[in-house]
Amino acid sequence: MSRVSSVLFPRTAGRKFSRLAIAVALALGAGVAVGADQVRTDDVPPPQDVKYDGTVTLHVDASDSTQGIFRAHETIPVKAGALTLLYPQWIPGDHSPTGPINMLAGLKIAANGKPLAWKRDKYNVFAFHVDVPQGVTSLEVDFQYLSGRTESEGFDITDRMMDMEWSKVSLYPAGYYTRGITFAPSMTLPKGWQLGTALETARQAGDTVTFKPVTFNNLVDSPVYAGQYFKRVDLNPGGDAPVHLDIVADAPKYLEMNDEQLKVHRALVTQAIKLFGSHHYDHYDFLFSLSDQMGGNGTEHHQSSEDGLDADYFTGWNDAAPDRDLLAHEYVHSWNGKFRRPDDLWTPNFNVPMGDSLLWVYEGQTQYWGYVLTARSGIWSPQQFRDALAMTAANYDLNRPGFQWRTMEDTTNDATIARRSSLPYRSWQMSEEYYSAGQMMWLEVDAKLRSLTHDSKSLDDFAHAFFGMDNGSYVTRTYNFDEVVSTLNGVAPYDWAAFLHAHVDALNPPLENGIAGTGWKLVYTDKPSDFEQQYNSRTQPSRHLYNFTWSIGLTMNDKGAVNDVRWNGPAFKAGVTTGAELVAVNGQDYSKDVLTDAIAAAKTGKAPIQLLMKYQGGFRQVSIDYHGGLQYPHLVRVEGAPDYLSEIIAAKK
Q: Which structural domain range is residue 103 located in?
């Protein structure tokens, strides 16, 4: 999802009012009745579990890589009467109504060569109404999807590659489950490009590829990656179901893997199948973009995943350990999220709202297994795994005071509330904590299962029982809280309902217990781990940060701009605000080294650290009375305690 700066959308409570509020106020002032008797609802037929007659043909001309325009043409079988066409709104994997309706343009609907008038629904901007005349059996629908043209908007296509999601380039008839609507899709690529997708090809003529017909829910679940520089790598030779890594890159040199890299990526597939004891796909494709323009993406699908990292993923291997858990995370979602899905998150079509209350299972446990499988496969070394886990644990040791007012379950609403937009005080507001806080909870569950059973059972047994059923099936099976509890009790009896409620539904959950239960403890030293140094130096937009979270309580980008301040931390108490620019430290021009030296020196001195901050055109001196020195998280062994953490990441034989 694209990120929106809070500077552009400041908080205006008590000062400005929405157009709706103004309209209501004016109406009330004029004596016009606006109240409960005025029902405001859309005019969209609800979905029914019946088959849609006929097959919708969809062709997308994706050849315009220069201007980023996808041209969609649909032929939709119809009957005379009222018809509503929907643009997908609630997108699986986003957990929120993120369908980019603002990028749809040029909509035209015709029948028998004559244009038909359409009208957008008054209260549902994703719905388009059209009256089908007598004698008309099909509609011709044309529109364009306009890819973002700047980095802040996000790219669906560059001059070298594309990520085409079918939900962005299709309209579908309302009134039906998406599994009851059949599409016959095809697309035209830029000249000479090759593609990867979970869809099966029926035929190819030049740069136009026609795929086999597929239900609409499976079409949306099967995006296409294509590029000028493409390579397909077999990750499961001789296995029951083919698994491939389909790579598109900014240049040919970025496609090359060495033997060790190939070995560990194949081990990821092997270790995942051993963990779950099943697979839920006929074939699986990691759709992998290596790009400094189109990197930084990750979305799960049943038989594929959209994955994107920096161009130097392979060529800069020794300096790029952070984010290497991406492939494992999205792969785990084939089991957790796509095959097994919370019952309030499953919807019959893409315009029915999703419920996100169990994302601490869907995403939290996936985050846990993503880390574990990255280590079991060798994509991370044991030390890299521990360093990554230490950074996560430290966030919940010091940097999430927001749990004083919000529960983990409440943060499952953040996919809809914040949509990954920038936040001025993330440690207090928090955002989607169900990922990493959920991960820390599931680490504790794993440790407790091992302890309760004298190390004979673990979370692996839960995974096998909960996700391993119906081998080969990719028909979604839903679950609820009670099934999670009963499956845990089947591994080892315990009051798991109370345990989960104490972590998910209560304030200040005991997330520190995860590390403590595995035979390790979190400590801080004045030296960052190699992993943290790499994390801070990566080139994605989310990086460029200098991390002083665990000392004075702030992070900055490489320009000295403060991008987060720890709530009630030393910098916060001194009056530092997110968005300010650090100009000088103790009278010296700011640089990372100058600030680092000042924090270190203050440990043995009594004088506060003096910062000169620039914000909104003005300058202000702040004094941070902090003398704890530099602080960076690490994990160390607890002597005499069972080393469950090393057992957790050991490769399964």
A: 44-192
